[in-house]
Specification:
Blueprint: E1 5-6, H1 7-13, E2 17-19, E3 25-26, E4 28-29, E5 39-42, E6 59-63, H2 64-67, E7 74-77, H3 80-90, E8 106-107, E9 112-113, E10 118-119, E11 124-125, E12 130-131, E13 136-137, E14 142-143, E15 148-149, E16 154-155, E17 160-161, E18 166-167, E19 172-173, E20 178-181, E21 186-189, E22 192-195, E23 202-204, E24 209-210, E25 215-217, E26 224-226, E27 231-232, E28 237-238, E29 243-244, E30 249-250, E31 255-256, E32 261-262, E33 267-268, E34 273-274, E35 279-280, E36 284-286, E37 291-292, E38 300-302, H4 311-322, H5 324-346
Parallel strand pairs: 4-5, 5-6, 6-7, 8-11, 9-12, 10-13, 11-14, 12-15, 13-16, 14-17, 15-18, 16-19, 17-20, 18-23, 19-24, 20-25, 23-26, 24-27, 25-28, 26-29, 27-30, 28-31, 29-32, 30-33, 31-34, 32-35, 33-36, 34-37, 36-38
Antiparallel strand pairs: 1-3, 2-7, 21-22
């Protein structure tokens, strides 16, 4: 069901300065190029300012510096992208993961249910689980023995939460996420792999979001710990005993090896590989496809991925790379010869 908002209501909800018709009715958020007169749009990057001239949006969210370039209805804010995010939450039409407790759900009699807990079809909730108020468990989910899930947390379909995992409040887990699976622990005995049972847990704080098919392994002995307000994209591997600090975000298909500690408010791009048994300090930004092989002790931006080139350029560069040792030796020989000639000239 479509809801309608007056522009004045939207302005009040994000503490914006309203310029124009406060009674203008808004149905949804849209891009500047696709918006109709019933939509609100936003301009977060001034390089798209030219689109203000042709947009049909009923209103636009703008910064003070961009507001003068648009004559229609507008909401003027400090940060249009943050304002867009808040309006998107207000106008969100995403359905609930579950309504009530479905007859096909298997819920052990020892489970402690908070108020308004919803469990969808074919979910399995094992013994001694604690589900806080307003928790939503999607279809086909599994929550293992003695796990705890805090209030207002939502699990979409087919999420697996293993035994003794603890999840905080206001968290969101997308479909296929696996929390608390065994870490990669084996000893090698004369060529034969001997499994090491993983007896630690996964502890997840409040307001954490975990993407589809992301895996967080349980600790080998100590716990794997994800602190408050961490955001993990799809298809990420977090190995055993990793600790991720508050406010850190990691993009899709990145891998964090075991026993690594990542600090607060880091930003890690996609396809990054982080080696195990090291530390990354607070405030680090790592660009896409980087390989981190040693600890990072100073905040800043770090890169190691190689930008693309034509195949011809890449093959030539790789040929040069294979000859680096030879080039180095020749350079040293030339430097030595230069020094000898300089000595002769001075004499």
């Amino acid at each position: 069901m479509t809801r309608h908002y007056s522009l004045a209501q939207l302005a009040a909800s994000i503490d914006a300065t309203l310029v124009g018709d406060g009674e203008c009715q808004i149905n949804k958020i849209a891009t500047l190029t696709q918006a109709t007169d019933k939509d609100i749009s936003f301009l977060a990057n001034s390089k798209y300012r030219a689109q203000l001239e042709t947009t049909n949006a009923g209103a636009v969210i703008l910064s003070e510096s961009d507001a003068k370039h648009f004559d229609g209805n507008k909401l003027v804010v400090k940060d249009p992208y943050i304002a867009y995010a808040k309006l998107a939450q207000l106008m969100d039409t995403t359905p609930r993961a579950a309504e009530g407790i479905h007859p096909s759900a298997v819920v052990h009699q020892s489970v402690k249910l908070g108020k308004n807990v919803a469990i969808a079809a074919n979910a399995v909730i094992e013994a001694n689980v604690v589900l806080g108020d307003n928790v939503q468990i999607g279809a086909g989910c599994f929550v293992g023995n003695s796990a705890k899930i805090g209030e207002n947390t939502k699990l979409w379909a087919n999420v697996s939460v293993y035994h003794e995992v603890e999840i905080g409040k206001n968290c969101l887990f997308q479909s296929g996420a696996v929390i608390g699976s065994d870490g990669f622990g084996y000893a090698n005995q004369s060529g034969k792999w001997v499994k090491i049972p993983q007896v630690g847990r996964v502890i997840i704080g409040d307001s954490v979001e975990v993407g589809a098919n992301t895996v967080i392994d349980r600790g080998a002995l100590d716990d794997t710990v994800i602190h408050n307000n961490v955001v993990l994209d799809n298809l990420i591997q977090i190995a055993h005993n990793v600790e991720i600090g508050e406010g850190t975000a990691i993009a899709g298909a990145s891998v964090v090896a075991g026993s690594t500690k990542i600090g607060k408010h880091c930003q890690i791009a996609g396809l990054v590989g982080i080696n195990g048994h090291m530390e990354i300090c607070d405030g680090v930004i790592i660009t896409g496809m980087s390989m981190i092989t040693k600890s990072i002790t100073s905040a800043g931006v770090y890169s190691s991925g190689v930008p693309h080139s034509t195949n011809k350029e890449w093959r030539r560069n790789m040929a040069h790379l294979r000859n680096l040792t030879d080039f180095k030796q020749r350079l040293k020989a030339l430097e030595s010869l230069t020094e000898q000639l300089k000595t002769i000239d001075e004499e």
